Amino acid sequence: MENSYSLGCDRRSTLKKTSLEYRPIFLHTRIFVGRQHKDLTMDFSLSEEHLMIRQAARDFAQNELLPGVIERDEAQRFPTEQIKKLGELGFLGMMVDPKYNGSGMDTLSYVIAIEELSKVDASASVVVSVNNSLVCWGLETFGSEAQKEKYLSRLASGQVIGAFCLSEPEAGSDATSQKTTAIDKGDHYVLNGTKNWITNGGTSEVCLVIAQTDREKGHKGINALIVEKNMPGFEIGPKENKLGIRGSDTHSLIFNEVKVPKENRIGKDGFGFKFAMKSLSGGRIGIAAQALGIAAGAYEMALKYSKERSTFGTKIANHQAIAFKLADMHTQIEAARHLVYKAAWEKDQGLNYDLSGAVAKLYASQTAMETTVEAVQIHGGNGFVKDYHVERLMRDAKITQIYEGTSEIQKIVISRSILKD
Ligand code: CAA
Q1: Which residues are annotated as catalytic?
Q2: Are residues 325 and 378 in contact, defined by beta-carbon separation less than 8 angstroms?
Q3: Which helix (H) or strand (E) holds 314?
């Protein structure tokens, strides 16, 4: 059986030299999947192109995200300029076909990029993740041609940012219990209700809103609608004051008699719940990659610090108490990375990734929480102050166990899957 993380790359035109070395790969390469391997060996090496993407995202994180990350976190300031640049470089529509302004890459490229950005700034990486996997992917996979031309091209190039609006005060985990209604009025729907904890809520121009059209039909009565910020009756609610990912922009959104044209419905009548579930299955791979990056970022800092800081006449890395913590962190991160890359690979192969995505998110988010706590511990008193970054990563880690399906929801998905036969 073919089983490889190494993907092919079809370079379609000569790389252009620009001042930013990481620019060309997003504009001039197209990754395709499924290179035929004649042998039966497993290959865990990354292709040259994946390594270039990793370097590009790493450079961007160091040069563009690191400066000011502590201040943005404290002030809860959205990384506006940085997100604009990420859009120009092709990070906001990484998997979208170039004919809709996307970068035409595979899911493995996407998770590698999210991992690297998250090592430095998880507030920025969640914007990239939501726009890519919860907004662009669903529109490209299930949207009409007219919807793709009107919305996807602008979303994939980062001209506008998107939001995915499922959660409500009483419908977070229990996603079928939507109170928001989209009443069918012939050529349009009338939308009423409130959505909560919406990532990109204040900054997005285009929202994918999940709402109940026919309560009698349960999940088969739910629709997904494309709603524009400037539609009358659309109001942005208060910004949330959060524990972590404080640079990201989380709001409630209020819909009061918003008229949404029928042509803005994604898929057939009643497809909204499955649209949301399918989008979240892929989204969870992105959040798993974010958790992996947060864990790896904290680990790298702890490793460096333990070789610099001395106690009792020796570097703290020489104390077994610290060395064993580092060994555990390394092991967990390696395991999480394999799960995340495997889920991405399965998606790229056209296999079902509901289970592998849930497994990856469950394990990587737990790894993020545990390793960031240990990174703070290794830093001692310095870990408790903001200058050393690890306390921020510890706060950022927590949300990866909550959004796009809590850890408990992942266990529902996993247990149902393994018990079904
Ligand atoms: N893909 C396609 N279809 C799916 C599916 C999937 N992954 N999962 C379920 N379905 C289908 C089922 O097959 C079923 O269809 P049929 O009746 O035709 O067979 C239908 O959907 C209903 O499925 P269930 O009976 O399993 O539904 P349920 O009510 O028991 O809920 C659940 C299942 C897994 C718990 C689901 O409600 C769930 O995932 N909840 C969590 C929602 C979530 O992740 N919320 C996070 C908010 S979004 C967010 O955080 C975004 C952000 O801004 C970062």
Answers
A1: 404
A2: yes
A3: strand 314-315
Cα distances from 175 to residues 146, 195, 275, in angstroms, run: 28, 12, 12
Question: Does the predicted model carry a pTM greater than 0.90?
Answer: yes
Average pLDDT rounded to a whole number, residues 177-193: 96
Stretch 153-163: mean pLDDT, rounded? 97
Rounded mean pLDDT, 184-213: 97
Residue nearest to atom 21 of ligand 1 (CA): 274
Statement: residue 22 has pLDDT above 90: no
**Structure tokens, 5:** 């993380």
Q: Is 249 helix (H, G, I), strand (E, B) or coil?
A: coil
CA of 265 to the centre of ligand 1 (A): 19
Q: What is the CA radius of gyration of the chain?
A: 21
Q: Whose CA is nearest to atom 25 of ligand 1?
A: 219
Task: Kindly tell me the burial class for residue 391, based on how many C-beta atoms sit within 10 Å of its own C-beta (0-12, 13-18, 19 or more).
Answer: buried
Structural tokens at position 357: 């995505």
Q: What is the DSSP letter of 240?
A: P
Query: What's the gap in Å between 15 CA and the centre of ligand 1?
Result: 42
Alpha carbon separation from 254 to 53, 233, 239 (Å, rounded)? 38, 8, 12
| Contact present, 274 and 104 (Cβ < 8 Å) | no
303: which 2 tokens? 């490793």
Residue with tokens 């793709």: 148
Q: Which amino acid is at 345?
A: W
| Positive/negative CA dihedral, 201, 205, 206, 209 | positive
Count, residues in the chain: 421
Between CA 197 and CA 202 the distance in angstroms is 11
Please give the average per-residue pLDDT across 254-279, as a whole number: 98
The answer, yes or no, to whether residue 29 has pLDDT greater than 60, is no
Q: Among 378, 299, 303, 376, which residue's Cα sits nearest to residue 336?
A: 299
The CA distance from 225 to 202, in Å, is 18
- Encode pLDDT of 382-404 as tens digits: 999 999 999 999 999 999 999 99
d(CA 73, CA 243): 10
How far does residue 392's CA lie from ligand 1's centre (Å)? 31
Residues 6+ apart with CB under 8 A from 353: 281, 282, 285, 343, 346, 347
The pLDDT confidence band at residue 178, using thresholds 50, 70 and 90, is confident
